[in-house]
């Protein structure tokens, strides 16, 4: 179900916790699985649960509670823009509007070519860098002017 | 980022986070001194108490007192946790501490573990800052390789293991018992207290949780003595503090300044008001803290006691600045949406109440407000506050109450005239929250 490399990464996470507390690694294991698969189908969640020796429903509870897990297929690149108040005061909402216009989609939608999914995010703890967006959960992009958004989209399109 | 203060002093962005540079700045000297001189744990806790260090995550609880709650003679495992789940809108200080000075946190946690007899610790890092999590992992490797973490630290009989735990997007995990649930691999839903974590914490064992900045302050307190740290600030408000300034200023960013600095000076450090516009309102301690009118804020100093006297909270030190082009109804609508979205759903008053607050503020903003809506909002907040397991319900209520208290006439105008007091084009150009239809 998961590659040898992903399993090795999960094993490293398991080793951080007491030997009888493997479930503590579930958040990392789901993240690693999502990076490999692009999103988290139920079978993958079930596999992760089995790997950690926990009930599948407990792993699903975690996957559905934390909002960076994707339980539905998404575009090749997910862009999450923070529109919370401190970011909004420094252009976060305007950046979101510009992304919608450029991609021709609204929040929680995916472009017809399957390239981009656009999300509205809550506080990322980077308000001083507004406008801020997160690309594919792991790359934080700061001070995103229109020019920088254009560059970012062009770069992602080539990947 | 200011290069003054203690934690941020001498840092040069991404270039100086490593062990070598930290040691060159005097890093790990506090830990080395403690180990070499076999300083007793109670002496360390006494220094913490003398320093008047108060929790930097938002609650401002005296750190030394918290450490003294850990049962010294407990026979089994004891844990330490660092709360780096920084997601309170306006707060972005711990991210800078972790990426630019991670060893200060590691040293502070190691000293804490020594003082409380903890054998293992976890640093819970906010989900959205993956690069910071990776850097912290690298810093941990450096510390282990240098004999500063792990078995027999610096050749002594003291051992402590520290690991990074990565969150994945849930504001509620900044609540300390939700954070523990999350480390245990569960939904981050807060626990009933009591029992408090010092008696029943991670995996049911005694646990102490402190904020990133709190831990990062510890080595400096050991080096300069509790009284030296206290004297940097003012009585009952010891030391320096990082303030995250965001919103309508020319230079948003983190500024580490002595406690008690006048707000006007901090505003000046952040480059003053954007476009030279007039200050309207400030949320002085993160989005949960009551908003204060600009005029009140200009008379405050940046410390727990002054801000509390003015009717708000210093909280996490997140200063959100709003100028005269801001529609306060629109601003509150966005905050109320946040709490509605982030309520964990465990307690009915919060789960239902936050949705209610958002929908009522939303309809006022959109010209559908009713004459008794302000009474309704106050009634809903009254029915949330104090009736939930954790403080998220209170955190959702305090903005609503304070926005109505200080800017009630703006809400009334909205309800009566079905439009903003601040013209839309002024908002679009100025406050930037507004979107053209």
Automatic annotation (TrEMBL), chain A:
PROSITE patterns: COMPLEX1_24K. GO terms for molecular function: oxidoreductase activity. Pfam families: 2Fe-2S_thioredx. Its EC number is 1.6.5.11. Its cofactor is [2Fe-2S] cluster. InterPro entries: NuoE-like (IPR002023), NuoE_dom (IPR042128), NuoE_N (IPR041921), Thioredoxin-like_sf (IPR036249). Keywords: 2Fe-2S, Iron, Iron-sulfur, Metal-binding, Oxidoreductase. The keyword Phosphoprotein does not apply. The keyword Cell membrane does not apply. Gene3D superfamilies: Glutaredoxin, NADH-quinone oxidoreductase subunit E. Belongs to the complex I 24 kDa subunit family. PANTHER family: NADH DEHYDROGENASE [UBIQUINONE] FLAVOPROTEIN 2, MITOCHONDRIAL (PTHR10371:SF3), NADH DEHYDROGENASE UBIQUINONE FLAVOPROTEIN 2, MITOCHONDRIAL (PTHR10371). This is NADH-quinone oxidoreductase subunit NuoE. It comes from Aromatoleum diolicum. The gene is nuoE.
């Amino acid at each position: 179900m998961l590659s040898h490399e992903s399993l090795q990464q999960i094993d490293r996470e398991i080793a951080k916790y007491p030997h009888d507390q493997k479930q503590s690694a579930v958040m990392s294991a789901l993240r690693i699985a999502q990076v490999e698969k692009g999103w988290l189908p139920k079978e993958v969640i079930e596999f992760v649960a089995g790997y950690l020796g926990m009930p599948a429903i407990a792993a699903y509870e975690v996957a559905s509670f934390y909002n960076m897990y994707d339980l539905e297929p998404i575009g090749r690149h997910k862009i999450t823009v923070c529109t919370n108040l401190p970011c909004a005061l420094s252009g976060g909402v305007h950046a979101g509007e510009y992304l919608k216009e450029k991609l021709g989609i609204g929040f929680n939608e995916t472009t017809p070519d399957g390239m981009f999914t656009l999300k509205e995010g809550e506080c990322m703890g980077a308000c001083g860098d507004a406008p801020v967006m997160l690309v594919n959960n792991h790359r934080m992009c700061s001070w995103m002017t229109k020019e920088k958004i254009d560059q970012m989209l062009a770069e992602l399109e080539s990947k | 980022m200011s290069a003054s203060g203690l934690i941020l002093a001498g840092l040069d962005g991404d270039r100086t986070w490593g062990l070598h540079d930290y040691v060159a700045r005097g890093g790990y000297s506090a830990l080395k001194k403690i180990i070499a001189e076999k300083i007793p744990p109670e002496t360390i806790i006494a220094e913490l108490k003398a320093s008047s260090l108060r929790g930097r995550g938002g609650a401002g609880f005296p750190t030394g007192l918290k450490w003294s709650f850990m049962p010294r003679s407990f026979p089994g495992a004891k844990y330490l946790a660092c709360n780096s789940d920084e997601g309170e809108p306006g707060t972005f200080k711990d991210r800078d501490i972790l990426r630019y000075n991670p060893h200060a946190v590691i040293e502070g946690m190691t000293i804490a573990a020594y003082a409380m007899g903890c054998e293992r610790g976890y640093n819970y890092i906010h989900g959205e800052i993956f690069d910071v999590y990776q850097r912290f992992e690298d810093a941990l490797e450096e510390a282990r390789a240098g004999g500063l973490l792990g078995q027999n630290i610096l050749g002594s009989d003291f051992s402590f293991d520290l690991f990074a735990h990565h969150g994945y997007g849930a504001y509620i995990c900044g609540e300390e018992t939700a954070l523990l649930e999350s480390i245990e691999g569960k939904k981050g839903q807060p626990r009933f207290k009591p029992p408090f974590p010092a008696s029943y914490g991670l995996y049911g064992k005694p646990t102490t949780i402190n904020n990133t900045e709190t831990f990062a302050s510890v080595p400096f307190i050991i080096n300069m003595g509790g009284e030296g740290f206290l004297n940097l600030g003012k009585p009952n408000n010891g030391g320096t503090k990082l303030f995250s300034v965001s919103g309508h200023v020319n230079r948003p960013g983190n500024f580490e300044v002595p406690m008690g600095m006048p707000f006007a000076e901090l505003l000046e450090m952040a480059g003053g008001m954007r476009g030279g516009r007039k200050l309207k309102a400030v949320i002085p301690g993160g989005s949960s803290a009551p908003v204060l009118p600009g005029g009140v804020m200009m008379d405050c100093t940046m410390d727990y006691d002054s801000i509390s006297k003015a009717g708000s909270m210093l909280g996490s030190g997140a200063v959100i600045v709003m100028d005269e082009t801001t529609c306060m109804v629109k601003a509150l609508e966005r905050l109320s949406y946040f709490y509605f979205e982030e309520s964990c759903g465990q307690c009915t008053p919060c789960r239902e109440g936050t949705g209610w607050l958002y929908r009522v503020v939303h309809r006022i903003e959109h010209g559908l407000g009713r004459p008794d809506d302000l009474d309704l909002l106050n009634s809903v907040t009254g029915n949330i506050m104090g009736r939930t397991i954790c403080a998220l319900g209170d955190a959702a209520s305090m903005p609503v109450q304070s926005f109505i208290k200080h800017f009630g006439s703006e809400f009334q105008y909205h309800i009566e005239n079905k439009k903003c007091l601040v013209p839309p084009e002024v908002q679009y150009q100025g406050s930037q929250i507004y979107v053209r239809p």
